[in-house]
Structure formats: C-alpha cells, structure tokens
Structure prediction request, 861 residues.
Amino acid sequence: MPLTVSLSKNDWSLHRKGPIDQARHNEKVKEAIKGNLAGIVGEEAIITADGDKIVKVPIRSLELPHFRFDDGRRKHAGQGQGGTKVGDVLGQQPGGQAGPGRGKQAGQEPGVDYYEAEITVDELAALVFADLGLPFLKPKGRQEIESETVRFNEIRKRGIMSNLDKKRTIGENLRRNARLGQPGFFGLSNDDLRFKTWERDVKYETNAVVIAMRDVSGSMGEFEKYITRSFYFWMVRFLRTRYKQVQIVFITHHTEAKEVDEDTFFNLGESGGTKVSSAYQLALDVANERYPSSEWNTYPFHFSDGDNWGEVDNQRCLDLVKALLARSNAFGYGEIQEGGRRSPSTLMSAFGQIKDPHFIGVTITRKEDVYPALKQFFSTREDGDRQAVAR
Amino acid sequence: MTPEEVRELEGAVGEIMVIADRFGLDPYPVHFELVPATIMYEFGAYGLPGRFSHWTHGRAYQQIKTMYDYGLSKIYELVINTNPAYAFLLENNTVLQNKMVAAHVLAHVDFFKNNAYFEHTNRSMLETVSINAERLRRYEFEHGREKVETLLDAVLSIQEHIDNNPRLRHGAPDEPPARRRMEPPSTPYDDMLRLGETKAEPEPEVRKFPAEPEKDLLLFLADHAPDLEPWQRDVLHIVRSEQLYFLPQMQTKIMNEGWASFWHARIMRELELTESEYVQFAQLHSGVLSPSKRNVNPYYVGMKIFEDVERRWDEPTEEERKKLGRPGCEGRSKVFEVRQLDNDASFLRNYLTKDLVEELDLYLYRLEGDKWVIVEKDWEVVRDTILTSMTNFGQPYIVVEDGDYRRGRELYLKHRHEGDDLDLDYADKTMRYLYQLWSRPIHLETIVDGKSTVLTYEGQRGHAEPVRRS
Prediction:
C-alpha cells in the first residue's frame, strides 16, 4: 500500500489565539489579587521591594475545581533507576502535610485555596490605589502651574508660513481646480493655504500637604512600628504616584516632636515616653508658617498606640486637633492595637468627642487592616456644596 | 530550518514511510507541518488547533511557554487523530530530531487508525472544533462574554464525567416522571363531604429517574437540567463532544507512547545515519525514555512492555511452549495484536510481569509526615495499584442516582467509592458549579474515612456551606 505523506512550512506569525486567552487569564489573576488586597498590602516582602521587582502574592486559586481524589492520602506509582527499597525518601512536601492547595484541611476552611501569583510592585500599587483619592480636596491658590503644553489641533486659513500644512494646502488646491473643471495641482492661491495652529493646554493642580506624624516612643512595639511603616509606605507611594504636587512633612515624636527627613522617618527607632500633643503642636506650627490654608489643602495624619501621657495631655491633644481641623481638609488618626486586646485608649476616647466628619479615626489590630485603613483615609469624599478637584 | 534542511527532511520522511510500511505499520496519510515554538505550545495548550477560547487554555499556554522558555521541557510533536492525520513539528529542531519525531508520529497515527478504542472517534475533529469555537463566539456575541465564560467554567469543571461506551449505553435517560396533579375541587366543600372516606386512588408506581444510574453527567445535564436555555445546553454538548475525542487518548496513553517509542527506535536504526547523528539520536531517545521518580513515564514503561511481549512470543520458555502452546517467532504479530485490542488497563494487567516490575524498578510512594516515602515494592501490589489508578481514567466514578430527589428535581449523585476518598474541598467547590447548572440542590453520596456521607449544597435557599450528614 502506498503511504502518503507531505510536509510544509507556512507563515504563522499572525496566529495569536494563545496570547489572547493568556491575557484573559492574567486579567483573572489581577481580579484575584484585587480580591485579596487586604492580605497582600500588609506583607513585609512587598513594602521593602523596589517598584519593578517581582513579588509573590497569595491569591485565591484560579484552578477550576473538579471531582478528584485526595492526593495526600493516596499511593502513587513512580520509578527508580534500580535498587530502590521500601523506606527510601523521594522528597519533601513543602509545608508538610498541611501544605496549601491540596485540600487536606477541607471542612475546616472550605473554599479557600491559595497559590502564589507573581506581580511587580508597581502593578500591585496600581491595583491598591485604584479607588483612592484625597478626601475633601478643594481648589486652592492656582498659582502653581503644573504644566503647560502646546497642542497643534486646529487648521486655519491664516497663520505664519512656518506652520503651513502642506498636505492640506495641496488638497485644497486640487479640490478647487477640480471644481473649476481642470484637475491637477497648479496655480496655488492664497485661498488654498491652510495653516496648523495650536492651543495652549494648561493644567492647574490643587496644592496639598500631608503631615505624617509617627509615634516612636518606647511603648510602640514591633507590631505597632511595622503597621505604621507599612501604612506610611503605601501612603507616600500613593501620594507620589497620584499627585505630583503633594508635599509631605514628616514628624516623629515621643515626648518631643521634631521634623525629620523621609529616611529618618521610616527608619528611626527611639524610646521614651509619649506626649502626643507635642507632635500636634509642631504640625500646627508648620502648617501655619509654611502652608497657609488659603493656598494649601492640609492633611495631618498620626499613627500611635494611643498610649499617651495622662489626661491633661489628652485634653491638649483634643484642643490641638480641633485647631488643626479648623484649617485642614481632614485629620486622620490611626490607633494600632495588636490583636485588639485592649479597649480604646484614653486618646481615642477623647477623640470620640469630635463629631466633625473631617476627623477620621481608625483602629488597626491586624496586618490585614492596613488596606481598609488606607481606603478609609483616602476615599474621595466631598463636602456637599463645594466641588472637589481631584485628578 | 533552512530550505535545504526542509528538503532533506522531506526526503527522509518519505524514506521513513517506506520503512514503516515494510514493518507493517498502517497509518492514515499524514501531513507534516513545520511550526514555530509559539504555535506548538499553543496547540499543546488547547489540545487541538482552533479550539474555543477559555482562560484555562490561556493558563496552560502560559505554563507550557514558561517551561519552554526556561528550557525545562519541550513539546517535540503534536499529532492530530484525523484522517488524513496532521502532525506538527518544531521548525527550529535539527533535521535529525525531526526525523525521529516523524517516525514517532507515524506509529501514533498507526495506533489511532487501528486501536479498537478509537473505532468511534470523529476523524474530522479539526473541523468540528472550529465549528464549536465559532458557535461559542456567536454565543459570546449574543449573550455576553462573561455569561459564556461563567457557563464554561461550570461545564469544564465536570467535563471528565462522560460515558464513552456508547455500545453499553442503556438507551436515552427517561424524562422525569410527570407530577401527579391534584384534581381541582368542583365545589369549595368537596373535602368536607369526603370526610371519613378512604382514598380509592392507588399510589402511582414510583418510576426511577433516570431508570439506571447515569454516568454521563454532561449528557444528563444537557438533556434534563431544569432551567437551562437551549444555547446553554448546546455548550454542554460542545464540551462533551470534544471530551469524547480526547477520552480514548487518555485511555491508551502508555500504550500509544510506548508503541510510538518502540517503532521510532526501530525505524531510526534502519536509516543511514552518520556517527554524530546516531549519537544525537541516542541522546534524544534516552531523554524521552528517562524514568521519573514521581510518575510512570508512559514512553519508557510502554516501550519496555512491548519489547518484552515481542521477546516472550519470539522466544517462549520451555514452560510457555508446553503449557501455553506458544510456538515462538510470533513476536511481531503479537505486538500488532496487542496494539489493536488493548487499552492501558488491560495492557498492564496482561503484560506487566513480575520481571518487568522489578527491571523497571517500579514502586509505590505516599506522603508520610512531610516526606514522600516509598512504601511498596511487591510487584503485584504495585501493578494492581497502578491499574486501580487507571480505572475511569483516574477520575472518581460518579453517577446520577436520582434526578428528581425529594420530589423536587434535586440532583442526587453517588460516588462509587473504590478505595480512595474524594478531595472534599474540591468536591464542595465542584458542587457549587453543578448547582449553577442544575439550579436545584445537589447531593453527593460518598465515603469519607470509611463512613457513608452525603454532601449537600443547597445554594441560596439553604446553607451557604455544604453540610455533611452521616
């Protein structure tokens, strides 16, 4: 019997089905990451990474479930190179019996099956920041010009010769000649000339200053320090990505407050007592001196464990916060209580008297609370009558 | 490959065909296509060129591509079981690599054509999947991409549960029994007047639905799911038809790869190769056949069994000659008979001998603590466990027991437990998908730790989480 065979080689360069479905899969991975942002935002590995670095983040598994056997409890067949015997160890299961993804703990936590996806920090940041914005932002002092660009976007009959649009000019000439019954390009007249002309495109940006205050007193434990750093890391990153004109003032305090640079702010570890009012006083002074409220949207933020030095200082704090609120768009206070073991601190209780909606108080008890806190502080809100300008 | 190399390969493929013919291989006509790696892993991810779009295919594509990019694994060939058959070769392979792959492919096509389990395979599957893909695209256009994707997610999660044994089918499943209607009362006082009377009406006979337990979940859902629209039923049929195509391949993986490796080695030995080409071939061949600690390498085990069968029928022992009446020199015809009549399960049951298990150094291992440890070397236990793992293609055997459970058209499934427990976490999730298709509560009877257990998912109407009662 003759056997038939043929061979050919074609151009496949336009064939792109796989990449299209791959893109849809990546989309789903992003959705899954979005669903677990709270768990991811608090991860240490991420806040210490550079923007283009790829980090691994836990996401809900995208594998389609099906009826299958419990692999961890089954025997499997394998093959040696000769001479294997009972008891030989083939390898180790990462994470051991309780390893993720094999469903050994079914029943206890149904429906949760995580695996690690890879994503760059920048992409992750874009997801985290998707719905965030500065609250109660108002247009202020338009003297700072963000940018002025020139766009050629109009055609006119008059202009300077250097901006002559040759293609359109020739087109007009052809059209006129054709209309007169003599097609062709000849006898250019002033009527045919077309000029490109431009528009100035000026963007105004609202000015905003964020005053970041951090408690570095001895009572701030590892967890408190970590949460503060984590929150401010995302905050600073968010402000820098989203708003080009936002200034950030860094203040640390124990019993005394001082203004520091960004590096010191994030890395400083001190000890001593706590006098929160010192920080608020400094914030108020800085704001009044350098950032007049007529020109600047002002946002003081403060993170502390709420362990303040006595009732007297709490009262002072309350007064100062009210003073700050009077000239700020919003005041954010985050209290960190590991495991939520205590009742609200005296400081938080004192702040309870403030009924102003521009005061935002948040309690953080777990790593996972950092993302909700970000969302609470930075959800775009507006005062009823005044339009906020946020980009 | 340069044009000269393509010509060289073309010549070699013709030569290979002649050798294969001399050996008695009987493939369909084959068209070979040289493709770039991207196309190869795309076809590998989809299983067939032109199949419908779904993100799971995209994920497979990404995985295969990553493995290739990091040099961890490479798909050498992809052959489509159609008549004529299509085979895809990597264009950046060397001529010699592609010669070996072509020989391998011819044996695959011979197997597709002659093995009994492929008897009912749709041989124009390429056209079928294209039409299916086109239909799904149209549904996406009409009903929205999201809706089609959500449906496909649900259908694909149970795609393994079909019945490929049409000859053993017991006819189409019945319709659900019609509900007994209450006769409308003629006057509002009817029931009062009948007080004290016994009901003369006999209870109607309980008809079972389906009459026999139904293994083909996809077909049963396509035909009887209460609330699906016609296009949604069509999607179930589409997925089912494609699974029917893949099923015999899953059923004969070891044999098919073993057969192809058995023959590519022989065909290559017939070609006139230079010394360096022969070394290249030997390297590639041993790469394909290297044993794997965690799996049974189908190429290696399959080829070894075929070689062993050929040897034992060529040179039977004295005992075999006397007791089994084997005259010897029947090796060739015996391997052809095996390739025609067996599937993986019968192949291993009949021909994986004690000597072979020992020679291949097969073992069983399991997770103990956090270590994977070898727990069994006894040849019979090893063989039987491998066989059990092949029952129903390694998938749990699940049937529809009752499509009208509790008289509320709830779906009652039964897992025919054969020693291994289900992954309950996955079962829970899969039942949610089933609920999406059936839109009534889903029950699954199985055995957990030796106890009969019913898992239930009642959707919005009841528990959000499946409950278990024993």
